[in-house]
Amino acid sequence: MLNLKLAALTMAFAITGCAQKSETTATAAAATSAAELSSWVVSESVDPITDAKTITVAQPAEQHGDFQLRIECTGGKSSVSLWGDRFTPTTRGDSESYSVSYRFDAKPGVQFADWRALDHWASPADEAAFLREMLGSKTLYARVDSDAMETSEGKFHLAGLREALAKTLALCPALST
Question: Span of the secretion signal (predicted)?
């Protein structure tokens, strides 16, 4: 559908000449922005017991739908996490964690960072810093190694994240970073 609209705009430009150039450019930019936003799934739920509202912004990893990057906001508190079906946390003393390696764009990677664990969720220790890095980057490559010798890895396209997060700002103003 998007390709048909862009093809129609291109044809209209060819027929009418340069007078349509700025309109075509603006429409193409809007279509690109909509395509970037569409890679993010924004959902809202309400807890049936507490009536707490949760807004989730998520994206499945490229070619690995069972591995997701998620940002959630509930009751004014936000969380950033990686989620995967096959995650089994590593137990060290009284705590559980995941070994996570990641890289933003072409920057140096971070290897084997300990992330907090909760069931199938892995969260960085400094979620605000990680979110700021996400907002300033185009791509996140991530790998989660679990105790069961399972590895989940994927590539996440971060374009459109700021627009997707805009829907959560009323509930979680801290996400405006």
Answer: 1-21
Q: Is the pLDDT of residue 11 over 70?
A: no
Taking only the tens place, the pLDDT of each residue in 52-78 is 899 999 999 997 778 899 999 987 888
Token digits of residue 155: 């590539």
Distance CA 86, CA 100 (A): 14
**What angle separates helix 21-38 from helix 2-16, to the nearest 10 degrees?**
170
Bridging pattern class, strands 139-145 and 90-92: unpaired
- Residues of the chain with pLDDT > 90: what percent? 34
Q: Backbone phi, then psi, for 3, in 5-degree steps?
A: -65, -40
